[in-house]
Amino acid sequence: HTDSLYSLTFALNGTVLCSGSSDSTIKVWNTSTFECIRTLEGHSNTVRTLTTATNGLLCSGSWDWTIRVWNLESGECLRVIKWHMSSVFSLAILFDNYLVSGSFDQTIIVWNIESGERLRILEELGSAVRSLLTFPDGRMFSGLNDGKIKTWKFE
């Protein structure tokens, strides 16, 4: 990378490490050799958050207001999701097949990770969403810019 790092995540059973940077790129690193396998380009601003799904997909959220879904094996960008009205600060996987995004626009959105379909919008949070954490039982926690934590339970 040529600028600050904002996000790290392991993928493909820990065989690769992905890093997101303010240089607008994502680098994919071999965790055995620490060599850069590939650079993923497409965002036009800082890559703020990364998360991986069990099916080999990498999801990235950026200050360019978009979410990108990548095939880690090929490096191909499968889809670009643009709905948030501000920077995407946090992503998390829910039940292996849903992507949850939190934004400076004070919304949390649940997406179908395969199709990119918007399934649910959580609004009126009163503050920017800085972080998300999900659990296998469907619980989700969000850390907000005003110092509050909000919780949800999905079935």
Can you walk through the features of this model?
- This protein has 155 residues and is mostly beta strands.
- It has strands at 5-11, 16-21, 25-30, 36-41, 47-52, 57-62, 66-71, 77-82, 88-94, 98-103, 108-112, 118-122, 129-134, 139-144, 149-153.
- β9 and β10 (98-103) form a beta hairpin.
Task: Throw out a few tags for this protein.
155 residues; mainly beta; 4-stranded antiparallel sheet
- Count of runs of 4 or more consecutive helical residues: 0
Output the structural class: mainly beta
Compute the average pLDDT: 94
Shape field: globular
Present the secondary structure layout:
Blueprint: E1 5-11, E2 16-21, E3 25-30, E4 36-41, E5 47-52, E6 57-62, E7 66-71, E8 77-82, E9 88-94, E10 98-103, E11 108-112, E12 118-122, E13 129-134, E14 139-144, E15 149-153
Antiparallel strand pairs: 1-2, 2-3, 3-4, 5-6, 6-7, 7-8, 9-10, 10-11, 11-12, 13-14, 14-15
Brief summary of the model shown:
By secondary structure, this protein is an all-beta fold. It contains no helices and 15 strands.
